[in-house]
Predict the 3D structure of the following.
Amino acid sequence: AKFPGDDSPVVWGVCGHAFHLQCITKWLSGANAAADGARCPICRGDWEFKELEGGAGEDGGVREDSMDRMA
């Protein structure tokens, strides 16, 4: 089965939660962010993109890993 975001890269927040880039972008730009600020949909902590180890490249912390690698 194909789901929205399946072809989207995975990004991590400093809180340790991972989301498809397409999904977290929609969440952060929606009414949730307007009412509550940029917060993680899972833990409700302040959302900040985590930099890749070794420093962020041009991709801004985007990982091409599958969601299967989420802890």
